[in-house]
């Protein structure tokens, strides 16, 4: 029997989480881009044989930010299918190709089209990676550690945001924004190297008929409870077996059209769309992608805003260790609902404080909004992706979930800068109303999945 290794399990999880690091990096890389909606007032030295400024309007800046999410939707669609055909590990390797090209293209961009094409390529890689990372992590994680391993994805995202903010702060001269982007290429090379030593997902191996390899991987990951269940047909009810087998033969996968149209998948579909769309439409990337613009509304100088952003991103990294403990104690449903309602309150308080000239109250609301996001909305949607559908539908469910996620992100990234300029902090009232409505709907449809296998969850959804 192969001995289990917790450290190797964590290495595999961390390697997959680098796909989410790429997303965090690219979300924050344009935060301090110079010459947006202005004419350069001085000449700067070139850097990497390219000019410091790529002049652009506010609308063009919004477009450059938002195409990341459009590329993400396309990447999610491709990766959801590719991972079932080629495997999770091979697909993650392929996704690093557009990511590497994107970092190099943007670092040496001399005009806006080059920057936008680079952002689109980065979106392809990050969209596919954000589909695969939570899927792979949930498939290698034993049930007892699924909550802890589930936060690896958002921990990777938070780390990407922090490293990007730190590099931007340390090399704050305008011409060094290209260096911030180039750092992404290093992490592409790092992930490619680590992917050579991690295992393939046991779910994929079983779907390919490679049962003995899958069981060896499960033993190495410490999934002894799952192995015992496989060896004991009486351990699960008939409903669970039906849910696990889906509508086809063992090893068959669910098609996209079947997942979207079949009544058997209807509740799972709504749960995933609501949780993933709300993760982005909560405005979380407003707090990060446009943090510098927001903080200049309430802090006395650009330097103070930059310093606070670095400290804040480090706080967010540390904060993401907490949900792994809370998820296994309190469950998924209470945390995601608390996250929605608390973020709504914080968004409303931020607007009120900013309008009443209370910057420190606004700053506290800003911090609490991200804190409450971290305890639920940050990780539960990704965990749901693998827990509210049967294994045969995980690939296509990830496609649908991440398309909803990226389209929500596109709406936020594209619409927020113009709205911020037109109505100021009142834009956060829009976010508050949306979160209250989604929280009310979530009270009715979001399930608890803690301590249950996907087969058990699906069986409960179909019988209710």
From TrEMBL:
Membrane-protein topology: Multi-pass membrane protein
Alphabetically ordered keywords of this record: Membrane, Transmembrane, Transmembrane helix, Transport
Alphabetized GO MF terms: hexose transmembrane transporter activity
Principal localisation: membrane
Chain ranges passing through the membrane: 7-24, 61-80, 92-110, 116-137, 149-171, 177-199, 302-322, 334-353, 359-384, 396-417, 423-446
Pfam families: Sugar_tr (PF00083)
InterPro entries assigned: GLUT, MFS_dom, MFS_sugar_transport-like, MFS_trans_sf, Sugar/inositol_transpt, Sugar_transporter_CS
Any one GO CC term of the record: membrane
Residue intervals of the Major facilitator superfamily (MFS) profile domain: 1-450
Domain of life: Eukaryota
Gene3D superfamilies in the record: MFS general substrate transporter like domains (1.20.1250.20)
Subcellular location: Membrane
SUPFAM superfamilies: MFS general substrate transporter
Family classification: Belongs to the major facilitator superfamily. Sugar transporter (TC 2.A.1.1) family.
Descriptive protein name: Sugar porter (SP) family MFS transporter
Species in which this protein is naturally found: Allomyces macrogynus (strain ATCC 38327) (Allomyces javanicus var. macrogynus)
């Amino acid at each position: 029997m192969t001995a289990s290794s917790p450290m190797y399990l964590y290495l595999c999880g961390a390697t997959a989480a680098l796909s989410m690091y790429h997303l965090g990096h690219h979300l924050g890389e344009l935060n301090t881009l110079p010459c947006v909606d202005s004419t350069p007032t001085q000449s700067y030295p070139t850097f990497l044989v390219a000019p410091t400024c790529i002049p652009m309007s506010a609308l063009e800046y919004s477009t450059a930010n938002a195409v990341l999410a459009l590329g993400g939707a396309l990447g999610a669609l491709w990766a959801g299918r590719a991972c079932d055909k080629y495997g999770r590990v091979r697909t993650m390797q392929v996704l690093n190709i557009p990511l590497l090209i994107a970092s190099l293209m943007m670092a040496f961009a001399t005009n806006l089209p080059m920057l936008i094409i680079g952002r689109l390529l980065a979106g392809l890689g990050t969209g596919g990676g954000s589909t695969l990372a939570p899927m792979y992590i949930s498939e290698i994680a034993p049930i007892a550690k699924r909550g802890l391993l589930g936060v690896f994805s958002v921990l990777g995202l938070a780390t990407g945001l922090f490293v990007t903010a730190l590099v931007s702060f340390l090399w704050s001269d305008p011409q060094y924004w290209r260096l911030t982007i180039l750092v992404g290429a290093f992490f592409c090379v790092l992930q490619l190297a680590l992917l050579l030593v991690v295992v393939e997902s046991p779910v994929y191996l079983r779907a390919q008929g490679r049962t003995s390899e899958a069981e060896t991987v499960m033993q190495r990951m410490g999934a002894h409870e799952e192995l015992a269940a496989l060896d004991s047909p009486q351990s699960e009810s008939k409903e669970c077996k039906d849910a696990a087998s889906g509508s086809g033969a063992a090893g068959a996968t669910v098609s996209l059209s079947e997942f979207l149209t079949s009544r058997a998948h209807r509740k799972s579909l709504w749960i995933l769309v609501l949780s993933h769309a709300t993760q982005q439409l909560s405005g979380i990337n407003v707090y990060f992608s446009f943090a510098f613009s927001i903080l200049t509304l309430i802090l006395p100088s650009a330097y103070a805003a930059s310093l606070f952003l670095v400290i804040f991103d480090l706080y967010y990294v540390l904060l993401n260790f907490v949900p792994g403990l809370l998820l296994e104690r309190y469950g998924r449903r209470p945390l995601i609902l608390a996250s929605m309602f608390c973020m709504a309150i914080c968004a409303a308080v931020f607007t009120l404080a900013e309008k009443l000239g209370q910057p420190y109250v606004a700053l506290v609301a800003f911090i609490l909004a991200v804190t409450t996001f971290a305890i639920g909305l940050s990780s539960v949607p990704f965990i749901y992706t693998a827990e509210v559908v049967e294994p045969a539908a995980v690939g296509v469910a990830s496609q649908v979930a991440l398309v909803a996620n990226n389209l929500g992100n596109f709406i936020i990234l594209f619409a927020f800068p113009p709205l911020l300029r037109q109505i100021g902090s009142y834009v956060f009232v829009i976010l508050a109303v949306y979160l209250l409505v989604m929280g009310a709907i979530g009270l009715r449809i979001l399930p608890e999945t803690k301590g249950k296998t996907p087969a058990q969850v699906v069986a409960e959804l179909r019988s209710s």
